[in-house]
């Protein structure tokens, strides 16, 4: 190309390839994929937002209202729910963006929504890692004075602040390079990386390392040491604890692995591999599905980490009973009537069976 255009400077050279790249993207764009995303993404983003906001909101309300003396687990749960809420707040904006295929909120909101999205994304993962490490320290190193001495609320707050700082550091490149860009079909909120730099490749690698490799490695390492210790305990609740741990690892792996695989394929696409139009259309369609699956994981965090506990379920029912006394009274009446009918039917069936025997 330099031999064909010997007077072309580096700036015009980069601009030329940007135009060619945009032109190829327009040629490879599939109207069916765009029409599908306009209906599919806003609908599922709305469902994830409603369910996740209710679940994580209940977690925050219970932790604030009923836990006067918080422990390390409560601090981790609180920040995990808070990071999920930050992530969920960004979903209505992305849903509106997908519905009309144009960003209408301006440049400041592009940075702000991207910051909420990235902070919630990395915060949720990092606090899940912190909870896993805390359980590992409590169970595996229960008799080590070093862990029991420094396992206090003050230390957990300091660790929470460190995790938020780490989340901000991991999010900064995406936040800084996000901007509103005028494209052929309207304004877009996207990352615009400097030409001639490896920031875009770095963002793909960073997402795979912090989003899957590190958390999955930590969870597998910690829980492979935790499960044998729980199995040796003579407790009736050990099987529930082991089952809960397996659910944590399996659910995280199932929900986040497809997203990271597609992101890794996009990394290779950016390097110049799999550049056909069919590959680009398939990656765009696959990203819509795996993104929604990964985003819905924040709806399951309250269920997995908090609502599975009997004590937490009792507190949730208590606070719902205070907020909606009429509805709970009607539900209690229906449940009592159903129980009475069931007991009467069982007594009748026992009488009939005894009569037949006689």
From TrEMBL:
Native species: Pangasianodon hypophthalmus (Striped catfish)
Entry GO terms, CC: early endosome; external side of plasma membrane
Record-given protein name: G-protein coupled receptors family 1 profile domain-containing protein
Transmembrane annotation, as ranges: 44-64, 76-95, 115-133, 153-177, 209-232, 244-265, 285-308
Top-level taxon of origin: Eukaryota
Short name of one Pfam family: 7tm_1
Subcellular localization(s) per the UniProt record: Cell membrane; Early endosome
The keyword Glycoprotein is assigned to this record: yes
Predominant place of localization: membrane
Record GO biological process: calcium-mediated signaling; cell chemotaxis; immune response; positive regulation of cytosolic calcium ion concentration
Record GO terms (molecular function): C-C chemokine binding; C-C chemokine receptor activity
């Amino acid at each position: 190309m330099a031999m064909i255009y010997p007077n072309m400077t580096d700036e015009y050279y980069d601009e030329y390839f940007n135009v060619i790249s945009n032109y190829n993207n327009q040629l490879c764009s599939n109207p069916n994929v765009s029409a599908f995303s306009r209906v599919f993404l806003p609908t599922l983003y709305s469902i994830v937002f409603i369910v996740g906001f209710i679940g994580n909101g209940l977690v925050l309300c219970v932790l604030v209202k009923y836990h006067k003396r918080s422990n390390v687990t409560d601090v981790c749960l609180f920040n995990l729910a808070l990071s999920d809420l930050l992530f969920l707040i960004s979903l209505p904006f992305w849903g509106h963006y997908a519905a009309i295929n144009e960003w209408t909120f301006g440049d400041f909101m592009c940075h702000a929504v991207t910051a909420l999205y990235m902070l919630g994304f990395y915060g949720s993962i990092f606090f899940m890692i912190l909870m896993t490490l805390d359980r590992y320290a409590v169970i595996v190193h229960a008799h080590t004075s070093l862990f029991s001495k420094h396992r206090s609320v003050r230390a957990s707050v300091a660790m929470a602040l460190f995790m938020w700082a780490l989340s901000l550091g991991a999010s900064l490149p995406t936040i800084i390079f996000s901007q509103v860009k005028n494209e052929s079909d309207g304004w877009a909120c996207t990352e615009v990386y400097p030409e001639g730099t490896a920031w875009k490749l770095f963002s793909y690698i960073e997402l795979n390392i912090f989003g899957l490799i590190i958390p999955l490695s930590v969870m597998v390492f910690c829980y492979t040491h935790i499960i044998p210790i729980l199995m040796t305990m003579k407790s009736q609740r050990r099987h529930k604890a082991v089952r809960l741990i397996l659910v944590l690892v399996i659910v995280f792996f199932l929900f986040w692995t497809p997203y990271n695989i597609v992101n890794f394929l996009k990394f290779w696409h950016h390097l110049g591999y799999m550049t056909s139009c069919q590959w680009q259309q398939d990656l765009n369609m696959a990203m819509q599905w795996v993104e929604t699956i990964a985003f819905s994981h924040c709806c399951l965090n309250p269920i997995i980490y908090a609502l599975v506990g009997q004590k937490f379920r009792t507190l949730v029912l208590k606070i719902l009973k205070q907020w909606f006394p009429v509805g709970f009274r009607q539900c209690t009446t229906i449940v009592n009537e159903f129980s009475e009918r069931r007991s009467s039917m069982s007594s009748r069936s026992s009488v009939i069976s005894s009569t037949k025997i006689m």
